[in-house]
Specification:
There is one protein chain. This protein has a 7-stranded mixed beta sheet with strand order 6-5-4-1-3-2-7, sandwiched between helices. The protein is globular. The protein has helices at residues 2-16, 30-36, 52-61, 102-111, 124-128, 130-141, 167-177, 192-201, and strands at 39-46, 73-82, 86-95, 114-120, 150-155, 180-183, 208-209. It is α/β, with parallel strands linked by helices. Keywords: Cell membrane, GTP-binding, Lipoprotein, Membrane, Methylation, Nucleotide-binding, Prenylation, Signal. This is GTP-binding protein Di-Ras2.
């Protein structure tokens, strides 16, 4: 009888309570968390209709549409060169132009590494509406704002007959706010790439660029980094 019980216990001990196997898999979010550390986050601000989405889509996708669709918040990603030998993900957040979502705007500022402030040269009001955004940047970032690359952008320069904001006005305001300055035309694809090149070149903590330098290249030749 005792032999039978020993066999019974041995059988059920093996079948019902097998020894646990050591886990070799990573936590489900480990790879994602690791990838996030290489993101360089850029937030784009401006009033509705100034062409924020058009600038971003022209840069990322090479496309332009005359149809205006109000944005709540969209995020785009682009691969760029980081510290010459590595790659980073340029994460561009196209923020809302509405004043109804201040919490979302503050969150984009708190997470952002760099900022693009867009107005339309055809609308003086759109330039004035950047004032509260700059104030919010100062409130959220505090002393860190002095290290953040910021570009003031006058879009729609192709509509010269409707211009309400002169280039000189934009330059003076840029000097007052301590930002870089450029005028663009998303429609004609003018200065869009230059905008992002300039923004990345202003970063002090990392060496960022849209192109990657080939260490084996001679005579100053460079090869372009693959863009996704």
């Amino acid at each position: 009888m005792s032999v039978f019980l020993d066999l019974w216990h041995a059988f059920w001990g093996v079948v019902c309570w097998p020894a646990p196997k050591p886990s070799t898999s990573q936590p489900p979010n480990a790879a994602h968390q690791s990838a996030e550390t290489s993101d360089y986050r850029v937030a784009v601000f401006g009033a509705g209709g100034v062409g924020k989405s058009s600038i971003v889509q022209r840069f990322v996708n090479g496309t332009f549409s005359d149809n205006y669709v109000p944005t709540i918040e969209d995020t785009y990603r682009q691969v760029i060169s980081c510290n010459q030998k590595n790659v980073c993900t340029l994460q561009i957040t196209d923020t809302t132009g509405s004043h109804q979502f201040p919490a979302m705007q503050r969150l984009s500022i708190s997470k952002g590494h760099a900022f693009i402030l867009v107005y339309a040269v055809t609308s003086r009001q759109s330039l004035e509406e950047l004032g509260p955004i700059v104030k919010m940047l100062m409130e959220v970032k505090g002393s860190q704002l002095s290290e953040a690359p910021i570009m003031l952008v006058g879009n729609k320069k192709d509509e010269s007959q409707k211009r309400e904001v002169s280039t000189e006005t934009g330059q003076k305001l840029s000097g007052r706010w301590g930002t870089g300055f450029i005028e663009t035309s998303a429609k004609n694809n003018e200065n869009v790439t230059e905008l992002f090149q300039t923004l990345l070149s202003m970063e002090k903590k990392r060496q960022l660029a849209l192109t990657m330098e080939d260490p084996e290249a001679k005579n100053g030749k460079k090869k372009k980094c693959s863009v996704m």
